[in-house]
Amino acid sequence: MSDHLFYQTRQTRPFIERAEGIYLWDAAGQRYLDGASGAMVSNVGHSHPHVLARMSAQMQSATFAYRLHFQSDIVEQFAARLAKKAPKGLDKVFFVSGGSEAVETAIKLARQATLARGEPERFKIMSRLPSYHGSTLGAVAVTGTPPFAEPFAPMMQAMPKVRAPLHYLDGLDPEDPGTAAHYLKEIEEAILAESPESLLAFLVEPVGGASTGALVPPKGYMEGLRALCDKYGLLLIYDEVMTGGGRTGTYFAADQYDAVPDMIISAKGLGGGYMPLGAVISRNDLVDDVLDHGGFLHGFTNAAMPLAAAAGMGVLDVVEEEQLCDRATRIGGVLFDRLRDLQSAYPFIGDVRGKGLLLAFELMADGQSKQVLPKELNAHVKLVNIAYENGLIIYSRRTRNGTEGDHFMICPPLITTAAQTDELVALLDKSLGQFADLYLKEVA
Ligand SMILES: Cc1ncc(COP(=O)(O)O)c(C=O)c1O
């Protein structure tokens, strides 16, 4: 059946039959609990009747109207609602179809805004190692996952990277103000080493996504980063592709810091899996400067489709009406504690971390020294497959710069109930037990 279709590998999976709420069913009738919301996308769950109704109503009028030919009421309304969700002063919205497109948009907008202000020497985007910002070439250049960049290195302008605040590996207390100071010093040194006047922006996930496994920055880190950006004239861009849409307990994770970015990048939960959708929400004056100096040299054909905006509006309605930000905090707290219980039961769970329903655990051979499991064990693949057989979908990545270490994102839809959390944890418990029996005896 897959003679003509290809993605990253030859791996095949069962065919999807239907999806509803936090569950999906394959063509053979096997049910799966979506413990990763796809790839941290389905924040309001699958087939939500309200979202489908809004999309269906929009389909009766216009699905597509090219933005150079028509304005669209629903797109305008959606932009206004997003601007309201963003911090004060970020009122200008540019729609795209996904996260990588949104990252490209933000870095090109930053560059053109700087040109408009007469600082052509600023072109470098500093980001972190590890990090993930997308798979188009511009996004790969700012992504801190070396294996994703290596084949394409000759084709890209390498961008500077600085270590993410991996406090759990460095044995530092995230609540101690000295911890943030330690990592901020590293950033300042990196800025000075690059010559600050060549730097355009700092791109950062306010809570780490799949590359770090839900790394929460130490207290004061984001505020200190804002201060460093101001000191050296860098724009601060939050990549909220994964954290946005309520996942960390507020609509944008930006709301949890006393550090307002110059731009926010959003995707994934914005369209919630109902339509491909992304956005950049920018500081007003940056956009005005670009539009006053010849316009923004950028755009995608399918951006700002009325149907995508209707899907986004429907998802946003559900997030608000069902108070899903609060629920992410509440259910996320319960799930976090349950993951900690699993850590007590399975010593090879070396760390549990995250915020709201952006949670992860990391497997380690030794929790004390933080040693990873043997690389060739490929635990990040094996545990996912065992869970899949048990009807639980989880999402994994290599932890240490994308080359070794194994972490697993546990990020069910924000509509997940307490009873469904129990079900998820029971399936995960069973899967971890099977994984240990099958693979860890020989390692021990
Ligand atoms: C933080 C972050 N930025 C950007 C992207 C790229 O988004 P997309 O896959 O929609 O292009 C992702 C995708 O996982 C992401 O997690």
TrEMBL record:
Its cofactor is pyridoxal 5'-phosphate. This is Aminotransferase class III-fold pyridoxal phosphate-dependent enzyme. InterPro entries: Aminotrans_3, Aminotrans_3_PPA_site, PyrdxlP-dep_Trfase, PyrdxlP-dep_Trfase_major, PyrdxlP-dep_Trfase_small. GO terms for molecular function: transaminase activity. The keyword DNA-binding does not apply. Keywords: Aminotransferase, Pyridoxal phosphate, Transferase. Belongs to the class-III pyridoxal-phosphate-dependent aminotransferase family.
